[in-house]
Write a structure and sequence with these properties.
Arc Repressor Mutant, subunit A; elongated; Heat Shock Protein 90; 13 strands; alpha+beta
Length: 344
């Protein structure tokens, strides 16, 4: 960015560009942002956004498009307005897998084609349902714990949406595995933000228009508080910065988070130990009974299968009724750990 490398054409000649001109052109450059990008649709409506503002006692007036920066300098709807409008082509996916990889997909939900606020609330509700409470009975006490720490999980979801690089029109995605949840958003750290600043809670909103609306609707709280809350529960290693994407991976509480201790290993009966020992993948009820050489279905359920399920050691492969004859079962991450411990 000096006169030695920047030139201006004068007639048929190329002359070095004066430094003052270089600085002026650089300062006036248009950065790519959802506030400056023109929406390819201009027939936008915002009834959903009005409803959310009304619910917070903050009615939108006739000038809300300008006050919320949803229009360009030319008075046309920008991409922020498109994302917050009643109809758009943005869909956020929430996928669920039965195992530890992306091979066995058991659920594939999409939330979108509507206001990003509505889609965000739908994602929050869906993952809240998935964040079930697990129970462990130790020699000293009963321990109830959610699969993921609720505050950190919510912050991770909101951050991935509010800071997503929507200018490349790639929404964030959420993937639930047997041992973790992965949240992947487009974009990496802004140029002026180092990893040290990031983990210290310094925030440079990538989409200030979305941040303004989400703050108005109380979906976000203190600016920059999200990352420290996540780090407090899961450490810095849960963040992965790639060339073009950022991923947060939060392990389930059963899979050995820092809060777990050796005393947390559930106490199991001899029958449950036998059941865990014969697992070699996925099995239905009849296969398990045959492997254990048990003919009494009621006895098997009451003494083997149900205690293992209640202890979180055995889980259903798919969202079926656990009493169904077609239901298949497998060991959970903690079940695998208990089986390995008992085999030594």
């Amino acid at each position: 960015m000096t006169h030695k490398s920047c030139y201006i054409r004068l007639g048929t000649a190329a002359e070095p560009m004066p430094l003052a001109m270089i600085e002026k052109l650089f300062a006036s450059r248009t950065r790519n942002s959802i506030g400056k990008m023109r929406s390819h649709r201009q027939d936008l409506t915002f009834e959903q956004l009005r409803i959310y503002y009304d619910a917070r006692g903050k009615s939108l007036n006739s000038q809300f498009m300008r006050s919320l920066d949803l229009i360009t300098e030319d008075g046309e709807y920008n991409y922020a307005g498109y994302l917050l409008s009643d109809e758009n082509n943005i869909s956020i996916k929430v996928a669920k897998y039965s195992g530890l990889d992306r091979v066995d997909l058991i659920e594939n939900n999409e939330y979108g084609y509507c206001s990003l606020v509505k889609a965000t609330k739908s994602v929050l509700d869906k993952i809240e349902l998935e964040n079930r409470t697990t129970t462990r009975i130790t020699s000293k006490e009963r321990i109830d714990r959610r699969l993921w720490e609720p505050v950190a999980l919510r912050e991770a979801i909101i951050n991935s949406i509010i800071h997503n690089l929507f200018t490349i029109e790639v929404p964030p995605k959420f993937e639930i595995f047997a041992d973790r949840i992965e949240i992947t958003s487009a974009g990496t750290l802004p140029e002026s933000l180092s990893e040290r600043d990031f983990f210290a809670g310094i925030s440079i909103p990538r989409n200030r228009e979305l941040m303004r609306v989400f703050r108005d609707l109380e979906l976000v709280e203190q600016l920059g508080s999200g990352v420290p809350r996540i780090v407090k529960s899961y450490g810095k290693k849960c963040f992965y910065f790639m060339d073009n994407f950022t991923r947060i991976s939060l392990p389930v509480s059963e899979a050995g988070t820092p809060q777990d201790t050796p005393q947390d290993t559930p106490q199991v009966t001899p029958q449950v130990k036998l059941l865990l020992a014969i697992f070699s993948g996925e099995h239905n009820r009849q296969e398990l009974q045959d492997l254990l050489d048990l003919s009494d279905r009621k006895h098997f359920r009451e003494k083997y299968l149900m205690p293992a399920i209640d202890a979180g050691l055995v889980v259903l492969v798919k969202n079926e009724n656990k009493y169904s004859k077609n239901a298949k079962y497998k060991l959970s991450p903690i079940g695998l750990k208990v089986k390995s411990k008992n085999s030594h």
